[in-house]
Write a structure and sequence with these properties.
The chain has 361 residues and is an alpha/beta fold. It is built from 13 helices and 11 strands. The chain folds into 2 domains: 172 residues, 3-Layer(aba) Sandwich (Rossmann fold); 184 residues, Dehydroquinate synthase-like, alpha domain, CATH 1.20.1090.10. The longest helix has 21 residues.
Length: 361
């Protein structure tokens, strides 16, 4: 096992990365002394695959537990589902000291963290991410949220987990689309912060897509290290540093929300959002066209879309106004100023955003 620490003073926590380590989670939790009653939020498929392994480890550690399943889709990030979980958790919490285990991908992690943040004004929770996207990104950093009809992640809180426990071996059951979705966030980290990671992806993406453990472990550790460093210096995006992690997300989230039937999943939407951001960067003379072409090629090679075909520009533009980086009428885009370098630009003209989206047709 490899352990990284996210430093937030008294709220610091470990990010553990390893293979075939789920059985030892109970032992890890016992050392944290979070309580003796685990409320495990997951979905049916994850419970069927890994529930018994987790259960055995919790029993050995003397931890009581209850599984609660939610839908296996973005639709689970709903305020009504969050309310139903809180009510069920309250019934479970009779003469107990509960904590939450989020066993699943980004949806389960976001939902579980949100519930943990508001139940009794906050109880401990632990992230056990089971997808590539959640292991490299969403499980780390304490952003919790549910979606509203108006847009993604509009109801949420910064609330840090007590542990992130990433078992690489759980990724072996992912299908190609799920792996590709996670790769969008990995590519993002290379583009904004780590030239060597981006070059590693260019040369090793075929091995990663084959789910070879040593390559998966390398990218999960690399992304976790970058995010832990950023969050430790700017937990709540007050200094502008954490904002760089939103590269591709302004238009990406708009694409995802505009396709109401979730035509594009999160990773696909972010891939398209990054390409739109790169088109804007190019138009503003911040980057060379060669960098845009390299990113486009890599995104394509990992199985992600490079053209927007299933949602109108007008719908995307309408949704992008709900982006949390807006201040009044002032937008804020994370753009590239070179490989591994970012520039935050305010007041990007609507005509330029429209142009960049259309360039991706």
């Amino acid at each position: 096992m490899h352990t990284l620490k996210l430093n937030l003073k008294e709220r610091s926590y470990n990010i553990v990365v390893g293979s075939h380590i789920l059985a030892f989670l109970g032992e890890e939790l016992a050392g944290l002394q979070l309580g003796k009653d685990a409320y495990i939020i997951t979905n049916y498929f994850i419970k069927e695959r890994y529930g018994s392994t987790l259960s055995d480890g919790l029993k050995k550690a003397g931890i009581n537990f209850k599984f609660k399943t939610v839908p296996d889709s973005e639709k689970a990030k709903d305020i009504k589902i969050a309310a139903s979980l809180i009510k069920d958790l309250a019934r479970f919490d009779l003469r107990k000291q509960p904590f939450i285990i989020a066993l699943g991908g980004g949806v389960v992690g976001d939902l579980s963290g949100f519930v943990a943040s508001i139940y009794k004004r906050g109880i401990p929770y632990v992230q056990v991410p089971t997808t590539l996207l959640s292991q490299v990104d969403s499980s780390i950093g304490g952003k919790t949220a549910v979606d509203l009809n108006e847009g993604k992640n509009l109801a949420g809180a910064f609330y840090q987990p007590r542990l992130v426990f990433s078992d690489i071996s759980l990724l072996k059951t992912l299908d190609k689309k799920q792996v590709a979705s996670g790769m969008a966030e990995v590519i993002k980290y290379g583009l904004i912060k780590d030239r060597r990671l981006f070059e590693y992806l260019e040369s090793k993406h075929a091995n990663i897509l084959k789910l070879k453990q040593e390559y998966l472990k390398h990218i999960v550790k690399s992304c976790a290290r970058i995010k832990a460093s950023v969050v430790s210096h700017d937990e709540r995006e007050k200094k502008g540093l954490r904002t760089i992690l939103n590269f591709g997300h302004t238009i990406g989230h708009a694409i995802e929300a505009a396709s109401r039937t979730y035509t594009y999943n999160h990773g696909e939407s972010i891939a398209l959002g990054m390409l739109v951001a790169l088109e804007i960067s190019l138009k503003l003379d911040l980057i060379q066209e060669s960098l845009l072409k390299r990113a486009e090629l890599l995104i394509s090679r990992v199985g992600l879309p490079v053209k927007i075909t299933k949602v109108s520009t007008s719908k995307i533009l309408k949704r992008h106004y709900y982006d949390k980086k807006f201040t009044g009428n002032t937008n804020k885009f994370v753009l590239l100023a070179g490989l591994g370098k970012v520039k935050i630009v305010k007041n990007v003209p609507l005509a330029l955003i429209h142009y960049a989206i259309e360039k991706r047709r």
